[in-house]
Amino acid sequence: MKVMLVILDGMGDRPSAILGGKTPLESANTPNMDYLAEKGINGIMDPIAPGIRAGSDTAHLSLLGYDPYGVYTGRGPFEAAGENLELKPGDIAFRCNFSTVDENMNVIDRRAGRIKERTHELAETLNGMEIDGTSVIFKESVEHRAVLVLRGEGLSPRITDADPHRLGRVNEVKPLEKGAERTADILNTFVRKSHELLKNHPANIERRKKGLPPANIVLPRGAGMVPHLESIGEKYGIKAGVIAGVSIVKGVCRLAGMEILNVDGAKGNAESDFRAKISAGMEYLGRGDMVLVNMKAPDLFGHDGDPEGKKAIIEKIDEAMDPIKDILDHTIVAITADHSTPCDLMDHSGDPVPLLIAGPGVRTDDIGNFGERSAPKGGLCRVRGCDIIGILLQLAGLSEKFGA
Ligand code: ZN
Ligand code: ZN
C-alpha cells in the first residue's frame, strides 16, 4: 500500500467575522475533502507541539519525523537545498537578496528593483571565491533572491544578518556567541567584496543606463548550519518523493533524502496547477512508497489577511483532489496543514490544524465534513506532527513491529 500526504500550507484558521464566524475551510464548499473525511478518520494536529508557532520549514521537518529543535539553526540551509545546491553537513547557508546601495553603503532598494535579468552572470562573479580559507558557493534564485553557502573549518551559524531588513545602513555582521567571530568577519568580507565586484559589472552598467537600480551588493540573512539528517530511506525503509512549488519545502525534503519531483505548473502560488500536482503525486506512487504534495497558496492568502481569497483557493484545491477518490482502495491518504495562518493574524499561529486520514482499513468516525470545528470530534483526537509519518506508514503496512 502507498501513502499520499497532502499539505495545504497554512490552511488552518480562526473564525472570521467576514465569513460569518466560520473559518475559510469551514465556509468553503469542499465536496472532495468532505467525502474523504466521511470515509476516514478525523482529528487535529499540533505540527510541532501545542501552542508552538511553526514555520513551514520546522513544521515540515516535524511532519517527516525529525526534531526541529535538534536540527534547525536557521532557514538558509533549507532554502539552499531547495535550489539544488549540493550541501555538506557543517556548511553555513544563507538566504540573500541582490540589493542596491548608494556610495555611503546605505540600502536604497532591498530588492534591486526586483531584478529579473542577468542575475546568473552576477552570481557567477561571486561564486567560487575564497575568503580566509573558506569556500564561497553562490547561486541566484528567483528574481532578486539568491543563496550563499560558506564551506570550511570552524564556522558557526550564530551570527547576525547583514541585511538590515529596511532601508538604511548595511548591517555590520556580529557574532552571537564566542567562537562565531571569524564567521562574522568572513561574512562582512563577502558583503564588502560583493559590492566591489558588482558595482561596475556590465549587467549593472546596463541597468544604470536604463534607469534601473543596480544590483550592486548582496545582503545575506537567516544563517543556518546544514544538519546531518538520517534520510527517510534509512529511517523508515521507504522511498519517498515531494511535489512542492516553494524551495523551502523542497529543501527540507531534499535534505531528508526525498526525491524532488518537478511538475510543470507547480508554482508555489495561487496560479499553481493543483490538478497537475495531484496527478504527478499519484503517478510517483507507481514507483515510490510515499509522496508529500505541498500546496502553498492558502498560506499566502492568510498572510494577506484575505479570508474570501483563502476560501476560494481552498475550493479550487478541493476540486483538484477529485482523482484521489479513485486511489483510496490501495492508498492511505492524509490531508492536513503544516500550521495555521489565520487571516486575522496575517501570520502563523500556534493553533492546531485539522487532519483527516482515509484509505483501506482506516477506522472511521461520525465526522462527515472537513473543518476546524468538526475535526477535533473525530476518532484521531489530537496528535503531534512528528507522529504523523508513523501513523501513516503503520496503516499502509510499511512499518516494523517494535518488540516480539
Ligand atoms: Zn507553511
Ligand atoms: Zn507562511
Q: Any key phrases for this structure?
A:
15 strands, seven-stranded antiparallel β-sheet, alpha/beta, 14 helices, eight-stranded mixed β-sheet, 2 domains, binds zinc ion
Q: Any overview of this molecule?
A:
- The structure is a single chain.
- The chain has helices at 24-27, 31-39, 56-63, 68-71, 76-82, 119-126, 181-198, 202-209, 232-236, 247-255, 274-284, 297-304, 307-320, 388-395; strands spanning 2-8, 41-46, 92-101, 106-109, 130-131, 134-140, 145-151, 168-169, 217-225, 240-243, 259-260, 290-295, 331-336, 353-358, 381-384.
- The longest helix has 18 residues, at 181-198.
- It contains 14 helices and 15 strands.
- The protein starts with a strand and ends in a 9-residue tail after the last helix.
- With 404 residues, the protein is of the alpha/beta class.
- It folds into two domains: 2-72 and 228-395, Alkaline Phosphatase, subunit A; 79-224, no CATH class.
- One zinc ion binds next to loops.
Short description:
The protein is built from 14 helices and 15 strands. By secondary structure, the protein is an alpha/beta fold.
